[in-house]
Structures are given as structure tokens and as C-alpha cells.
Amino acid sequence: MQFAELEAAQRERERYHGLSVPEGQWIVVRVDGRSFTKLTNAHYDKPFDDRFGEIMAVTAATLLQEFEGVYAYTQSDEISLLLPLAANLFNRSVEKLVSLTAATASGRFTEVAGRRVTFDSRLWTGETVADVVDYFAWRQADAGRNALNTCAYWELREQGLTARQAQRRMTGLGSEAKREIVATSGSAFDSRPLWQRRGAGIWFETVEKQAYDPKAQRKVTALRRRLHHELRLPAGAEYRELVAGLVTSEGSLISDL
Is 10 part of any domain? Predict the structure, then answer.
């Protein structure tokens, strides 16, 4: 068999290589840490660790910059990256977007933390701005649920319960009962920093900067883009408005909201 024939035959078996996201659809790439429970139990404070949150924010910012995103949202060990509607990176190839975002997140976190980690990645697609807003509202709601569970669990552990006993104690409990568990430490759940309860957001903002025009020999005002890291995200309708504003600032229509 000639090489060309052999190559053609093997290329046909790369069955998913040609899979791509259709134009006109919004793409969110979500990366999740692999075995991060083991990692955080061994190396970071519980229930939350400021350093871990900072590393996740740095990783999210890197994804936002490397893949020219609109908005990056991080909570727990996950990052959701929204790409522009007209994004054409790697011809919108699913394989490329999934593999390279996971690799980038893994490399950046490892570099900053000094510990080797891996992330996996998946794609979400939406048809409208409203779909995108719903997606990020969902992830923020999940952040609040996870945060409450985490705080209640570790409060029980502080009280001397084993991991299995704490899990059994929490089985079937509603949110109010979990809040009561957290409050036994003397600090209400709602008093915890917002980034722990709602996650953190990163996006580009345009700012004015004073510069000097050597040709005109005068001071001028220039517009520059810089990263904005928001640790005090709003919730509910206000958060939806924030996300919608970031999305529509990329030139999309808001008429479908």
C-alpha cells in the first residue's frame, strides 16, 4: 500500500476531527479541575483558601486573554469562558477548543501553584443572548449551592465528625438547616466574602490613559483595554444585567432578551 493510500485510510478514522460549532452560535468553554478535592484537601485551607481563589483567577485571566474571550467566570475548581459570537479560532473546531483550553488551564495553574494539575474541558452552545445569560445565572446558582454545602460540611468536620458522618448528617437537609450548621461557628454563611458565595468574574474594560504625542508635542488621552477582576459580583437580576451588558457590548443584539 502506497503512503498516500495508507494516510487516506487512517484519516478517515479520525471520525470526530471535522466536528465544529456552527456559525451563529455562542460558545462557552467550561474547564473543570481533575481530582481537585484531593488536591485542595492536601494543600489548601478549608472551606475556602484565598490563595487557591487567586490561582483560579489567574488561570481564568489567561484563558480570557489566550482565547480572546468576552467573559470568564470562576467558582470552585471550574472556569467558564465565553467566546465572541463571531469567534473563529481553529475554525470553531470542537477538538481544538476542548483540548487547547484544558491544556492551557492545566499549564497555567501548574505554573502558578507549583503543583502539577490537569483540567478537562467541555463546550456549551447557545442560540441567543438570553441563552448565555441563563448559562451564567445557572453557574452562579451552582456556586452558591456548592459554597453552602462546603461550609456546612467543614463545620461538621470541625465539630469532630468524620467525613462519612458529616456526609450522612447533611443528607436530605435543606438550605436553612445547612445555614444553621454554618452559624454554629458564630459566623453566618451570608457574612462570608462574596467571591466564595457567588464566584468571581473577569472581563476587559476600556479606560482612559494620559499619554504624550511626540509628533504633536502635547499630552493626549488614549483608550486602553485592561483586565477587570470582580470579586463582588451581584446576584439575581442584577447579575443577569451585568452578563447581558458584557455580551451585547461585543455588538450583539439584545432584542431577544
Answer: no
DSSP-assigned letters across all residues of 139-204: HHHHHHHHHHHHHHHHHHHHTT--HHHHHHHHTT--HHHHHHHHHTTTS-GGGS-HHHHH-EEEEE
> Within this chain, do residues 32 and 54 fall inside the same structural domain, yes or no?
yes
Q: Which domain holds residue 117?
A: 20-198
Shared-domain flag, residues 152 and 236: no
Which residues lie closer than 8 Å to 13 by C-beta, 6 or more apart?
none
User: Is 210 within a domain?
Assistant: yes
> What is the DSSP code (8-state) at residue 68?
T
What's the CA angle centered on 134, arms 225 and 131, to 5 degrees? 85
Dist CA 169 CA 172 (whole Å):
8
Of 225, 229, 174, nearest to 56 by C-alpha is 229
Look at the chain and report how many structural domains it folds into. 2
In a domain, 66, yes or no: yes
Per-residue pLDDT tens for 207-248? 767 766 777 767 766 668 889 999 999 999 999 999 999 999
Which of 234, 166, 231 is CA-nearest to residue 201? Answer: 231
SS3 state at 42 = helix
Of 244, 232, 235, the residue nearest 200 (C-alpha):
232
Do residues 52 and 153 share a domain? yes
* Positive or negative torsion for Cα 44, 168, 148, 58: positive
The C-alpha cell that represents 116 in the structure block: 502539577
pLDDT per residue as tens digits for the range 101-131 = 999 999 999 999 999 999 999 999 999 999 9
